[in-house]
Design goal:
By secondary structure, the protein is an all-alpha fold. Helices cover 70% and strands 0% of the residues. The chain is globular. The protein starts with a helix and ends with a helix. The relative contact order is 0.13.
Length: 166
Amino acid sequence: MLVEKAHAFAKVAHAGVTRMGSGEPYVEHVERVAMTLTWLGFPDHVIAAPYLHDVVEDAGVSSEELALKFGPEVAALVAEVTNPVLPKAPGNRAWRKSEEVKHLAKASYYGASLKLADMLDNSSNVRTNAPAFAKTYLPVLAAKLEVLGHGHPELYARVKANITKA
């Protein structure tokens, strides 16, 4: 029930939003991230979190609302992978990304695994769909990957392979 509720919430929160490069509905990204964690046998509260992992940053949903609707475990996982510095916040991009990497380094095993599943989907076709963006995006993913070695080892290896492809 929790997973289905999170999925339905994500469909509404991301309605009308499309992915850069591919133009696909954004909700398909969160569905793939959730499916990856499902295939790996993670518990329901971890599988619910991918559906919600971008709603704080991208849809203006508060952490408090997530906790009320989905419980403190799900809200905490979303917080672990939510950038602590908004993308348009003052300060240069390098500083903002550095703060995000520091934040991710503190993630739990579940949080690190969620972020790795997100990065796996994001890195799977960025070179094809947005080659110019990939040149700046993949080094950022590599910096994040350096601090996520405590997540699921298969996910870590697959993200690393995607990032280092020629």
